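Work Package 4 report. The design task specified in the project plan requires that, given a folded chain encoded as structure tokens, an amino acid be chosen for each position. We show below one input record used in the internal validation round.
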């Protein structure tokens, strides 16, 4: 997985996975953190970190985000 491309140096991170579940979990964490950042951007919630942002969301939104993981796993044929 290549992350964070910067000219002219290329990718900052290059991670090799040999286990599809580990790759899925890492990609899930990246997706969730991005979503949480976008939800909290410009608010004081962002100062609490990703865990604090998640806990500060209404239960319905928390459930919606967690259900997305199950949806992604099913689409990727990953069984958690």
């Amino acid at each position: 997985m290549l992350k964070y491309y910067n000219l002219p140096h290329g990718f900052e991170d290059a991670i090799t996975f040999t286990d599809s579940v580990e790759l899925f979990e890492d990609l899930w964490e990246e997706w969730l953190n991005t979503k949480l950042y976008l939800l909290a951007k410009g608010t004081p919630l962002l100062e609490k970190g990703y865990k604090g942002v998640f806990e500060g969301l209404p239960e319905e939104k928390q459930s919606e985000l967690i259900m997305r993981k199950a949806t992604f796993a099913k689409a990727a044929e990953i069984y958690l």
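The longest strand covers residues 2-6. Validation will be extended to a larger panel in the next phase.
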